[in-house]
Amino acid sequence: xxxxxxxxxxxxxxxxxxxxxxxxxxxxxxxxxxxxxxxxxxxxxxxxxxxxxxxxxxxxxxxxxxxxxxxxxxxxxxxxxxxxxxxxxxxxxxxxxxxxxxxxxxxxxxxxxxxxxxxxxxxxxxxxxxxxxxxxxxxxxxxxxxxxxxxxxxxxxxxxxxxxxxxxxxxxxxxxxxxxxxxxxxxxxxxxxxxxxxxxxxxxxxxxxxxxxxxxxxxxxxxxxxxxxxxxxxxxxxxxxxxx
Length: 244
Ligand code: HEC
Hints:
Elements: H1 2-20, H2 36-49, E1 56-60, H3 61-67, H4 72-78, E2 89-90, H5 96-103, H6 113-116, H7 121-128, E3 131-133, E4 141-143, H8 156-159, E5 160-168, E6 174-184, H9 189-207, H10 210-243
Helix pairs in contact: 2-9, 3-4, 7-9
The structure holds heme C.
């Protein structure tokens, strides 16, 4: 019975993940909020490669500093290229209207993306690895996970350029079956995976900064409960000594 329940739950979970990508399976990002170095690298990658178009309107530079163990000077020098004040939110370099004119679509605020996308950081990770060239699209890029996304691959110089191998689905419609690296970027596949993981990790953190603190508090709560249990047990032994 127990085994049956466990496999039922697993089956339900995986069908939810499948639904998230419209039948696409997501790759495991390995994002880990306890990995501060990864979060710091992710923040740096985000401001360099994503913030031209995307904002994190609920995230202040000062909050990033305190959560990721960075000084005000480090943040202002390495993460803030827009001239914003230390206490201000991380808003895109480009005005949304200008970005929209250029890309042809509004680049959404990414504050909550890791929470609203089923699969969370794994969705973002897979998305960042699924770009391929497609001359039929206005900017020349398409995405296997998010078909016809308006975003061009911001990391193509690092990742390299992928091309799609096409096949047909059950209804005879053309689909991308496989992505092939046609010209390599400046990073190896493993190094690029780390870039995608660090970015997913940072966006996971940005979607719920309190999670960092909560995990730390959680450990104290468990310790406190263990202590309380111990005291209760001592008290019980004490009472029963009188009864016997
Ligand atoms: C040139 C502007 C531009 C840059 C640079 C850019 N994006 Fe995007 N991004 C977009 C646009 C436009 C969309 C909306 C795509 C659509 O809906 O068709 C988008 C969508 C997304 C989405 C999906 C959001 C959703 O809710 O559907 C994610 C995640 C994302 N971008 C992450 C990134 C990351 C991470 C980087 C940096 C490595 C980045 N983007 C760089 C323009 C950009």
